[in-house]
Amino acid sequence: MRSRLTLLTLFSFVLSIFGTIASQAHASNADQTRGQARVIITFHHQPGPAQEALIQSLGGEVHHTFHLIPGLSGIVPEEALFGLSHNPHVAGIYLDTQVHAIDAELDNTWGVKRIGAGTVHDGENTGTGVKVAIIDSGIDYTHPDISANYVGGYDFVNDDEDPLDDNGHGTHVAGTVAALKNDTGVVGVAPQASLYALKVLDANGSGYWSDIIAALEWAVDNGMQVTNNSYGAGQNPGSAIETAFANADAAGILAIAAAGNSGNCGGKGNNVGYPARYTSVVAVSATNQSDSRPCFSSTGDAVELAAPGVSIYSTKLGGGYVEFNGTSMASPHVAGAAALVLAAGIADSNGNGRVNDEVRETLGATAEDLGAAGRDSHYGFGLVSAAAAVASVSPPVPPDPAVSIHLTTDKSSYISGEDTAAILTAVVQDENGVAVSGLDSAAFVTTGSLTSASMFFAETVTAGTYTASLDLTALADDTYSVETTVTDSRGLSATDAAMFDLGPAPVEPTTVSVDSISYTEEGGKNSNKHLNMKIALLDDFANPVSGATVSATLHHDSGSSWNGSATTGSDGTVTFTLKNAPSGCYETNVTSVSTEGLAWDGVTPENVFCK
């Protein structure tokens, strides 16, 4: 099949008004009604119902309202274009011209072998699960070499969820990307990638830019990682389409596109088509079995990579296999190679939250230089090498975790001198002392005298610091060793040991603490003239502490303060009274607690009172 872009000039009076509209457009009689223009309209703000109503009020029809760009597409009467262009909310008006499947000529999978994909497969990387969207004429998902990898998609030509190919171009492209490795037929570059069909080309291999914008939106919304774009047009369709591709790139999608079949045998001129010429898209030229550029392959500064594009044997619409030529056949070799690099685990090295830029850089850096040294207008950086690209990707392996253990005794958990307990805290760190997160399991096993007191944390642990209680029953004074082993989600383990001294549970209290501070008011006409502040003490066995001397300072929010000192009664409390207390807020700070045989823990509980 060979299709060429045919152009239909719009009415001259429209062209004289709209500098932003391309000077030429093409459309079939079925898509263009006399006196109407198929357009893409962009706005200064995201369009909504009001903008859709505007188009309808002019006698127009809205086909798509986009969110990847602030625009919509549809059909508008030509006489309405002048007024629409002067609407202050309208940023630009562009003809919704057609694109065509880039020439695919009838002419085995030598290309897949040439770029080293088989070597990658031998290393058990087949692109499993990487999402590749084929933006094309659909996919024959019933083909036995494709069906297992086909996941879904959308038909933007017929506006339904069945993107079945009715042309054959998309099916051939899909087979080069991901035909199954099943010892029959052909094998794709990434034979276990997940294939999605976004049908934008009709049975004749033609489609509209507005449907391509919609397909890019679908790709972003559904988490596609790579798109193959083996279609194009010779004229720049305008900034709306360029912005759509740029926004998809910013969202993390790597767009691979055929450079075009508009080249010449002399290799002269800058004839790369669109969208391949956009900076956000990887333009792919074609090579033959001799690693040379065939005459048809487009040339220009935008060419970034080259790939096999002559006598490419791949899947055929309706079953079986067929050979095609064209940059349409070269592009999916690169899309498949990108899927292999993604499956290899390439990392986000620049911290922008996406890896499509790292994949693009890797493919260029590892390409086999052809033609003139360095990047050139025929081969770009050179012939894509799936083997070299994947070999250059080393998934980051965090260092083995180093474990430090700290054990303390928690006297509040002693019970009648019979049980003792230790609180164990493990901090899992890397070699730089940074806490490691994402552990699948952390097993803490005691050794020595505590063998019977093994303890395990929960199976799923996501923080970097873990604390648990280790109960030890009826132990005498001794020094014990605890050995800890931590296993992370990679199966890597680290072991460390710590010594601790655990004595018997005390039989007498050793500390005193301020259990509470409370306030009451009394006296005066409204019973709130004076302020009472009551402090209660408890020992570490939760008994009231009498005969303790308590010193405290009462602070007022005006900056005034009052000091006092008194002794607790038999109930373990002492009360201070501030006569004629002014209105405002008060806070008490205990400055000392002294009593024979007990040490104060130095803590004042939070307290505030306002009157």
Automatic annotation (TrEMBL):
Residues annotated as catalytic: 136 (charge relay system), 169 (charge relay system), 328 (charge relay system)
Signal peptide: 1-27
Key words of the record: Hydrolase, Metal-binding, Protease, Serine protease, Signal
Keyword Oxidoreductase: no
Domain Peptidase S8/S53: 127-382
Entries under SUPFAM superfamilies matching the protein: Invasin/intimin cell-adhesion fragments, Protease propeptides/inhibitors, Subtilisin-like
InterPro entries: Ig-like_fold, Invasin/intimin_cell_adhesion, Peptidase_S8/S53_dom, Peptidase_S8/S53_dom_sf, Peptidase_S8_Asp-AS, Peptidase_S8_His-AS, Peptidase_S8_Ser-AS, Peptidase_S8_subtilisin-like
Pfam families: Peptidase_S8
GO molecular function annotations of the record: metal ion binding; serine-type endopeptidase activity
GO biological process annotation, one example: proteolysis
Family: Belongs to the peptidase S8 family.
Protein name in UniProt: Peptidase S8/S53 domain-containing protein
Organism of origin: Candidatus Kaiserbacteria bacterium RIFCSPHIGHO2_01_FULL_53_29
